[in-house]
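Assemble and predict.
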Amino acid sequence: MLEYKGTRLTIRYCERPPAEADAGVWTPESWREALQHIPAGKHAACSAKMIARRRQLADEGRLRSPDYWNTEGKLPDGKHFYAIKVDKLRAYGWFSTQHKGVFYISHFAFKKGQKLAQEDANRVEKNWRRIERNELEA
Amino acid sequence: MTDFLEQWANQSQENAKLVAQEILITEVTEAIWKAMEEAGVNKAELANKMEATKGYVSQVLNGSRNMTLRTLADICFALDYKPSFRLQPKKPVDGWESVRQEVVPLKPARLRYTQTGNVIVPMDYWRSAA
């Protein structure tokens, strides 16, 4: 499984490469889509910031700066899901209870408005149900 | 296996340099937020202690304004913290590599004895001799 291991947390993606794809060169579709909303000249800076913040989260177990991290909506078990923030890009995810020490990134998104988009909340919940409750997609 | 972000970082020296910059900025910013949390100081209070505006502190902390070493020193002074700074080679020297230390709690072993008359014999450690 494709994952990033830090000293405190392992970060896994809910998105998986298609069977025929080379996992080594695969990029999550949501990351590609989110980047399309950012001017091309800023792609490198956004990628570097995401790498640095993901690394910090994996090594320290949390991010403290409100410019890097936000507590988002609630999951069906009453716990919150979170977002790693890079400018207007978000990596939505949650701390797994099924898999100790794992932070799952549900998907990446470009945040258009001030509020959390319902479609992002729905997507996180759907991924959470699949991974934490082993519920199959309808 | 490396993922897409690491692959991107390894694609060129320019990308790797950008990542190194962002890692340092992230580590310093997070260390300041940690110190603020521990000191129970929010952004407005920090600005007040630094005799600066809240907007200035926000810009320094969110990276839209470059943080100079002097600003960092001022933040530490305002929080009554002392910064510590160290440079070390990224690659191990002479084959030695630093690893994270782990604290293993040790308890003294419990010794069990048998007593026959006035002779006390440890059960677990003198088995072969006994």
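The first helix of chain A runs from residue 29 to 35.
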